[in-house]
Amino acid sequence: MDKALQTMINNMPEKTGKSLEQWKVLLKKETFEKHMQAVNYLKKEHDVTHGFANTIVSLSKEENNTEDDLIENQYKGKENLKLIYQELISFVKTLGDDVTIAPKKTAVSIIRKKQFILIKPATKSRIDLGLKLKDKPITDRLENSGPFGTMCTHRVQLTQLTDIDNELKSWIKEAYEQSF
Length: 180
Hints:
It is a single chain. The chain has 180 residues and is of the alpha+beta class. It has 2 domains: 3-64; 78-178. Helix content is 46%, strand content 17%. It contains 7 helices and 6 strands, in the order H-H-H-H-H-H-E-E-E-E-E-E-H.
């Protein structure tokens, strides 16, 4: 850590009223889609200067990017969808020990040698499951990729646990088998 940043962190309690650790705890309780939303929150709600607010948010982000944090943040305010996500992950893990689960900021990529599905909480009541399925016709349920563009060939909208049925599992398995 450079000297100026360390000095700023050391002066934080005196200048802002809280230590960096206290600010991190406070920010974890909030949900911000963008960096500047968090900075503006600290400035407006806590009278923190721009420089300190920017530093606090930047240092908090570095720490809050574990896989668990990424998933927790995706499902904040969408807790009703978390069981669907967990059931999908449980099934994916049965496909083989060559599966990698890679959470990102807004979605979770499921990869073999290449990504074969993408799990994204799209709204408060729906998960979009993107699949890569070559030469598979579009149906009412197995839609075109929609918002996934070229990352996936198809999309299935999931709103309840019962949507994870044998048909969906067969599509997931087919996508897995095609991704070697």
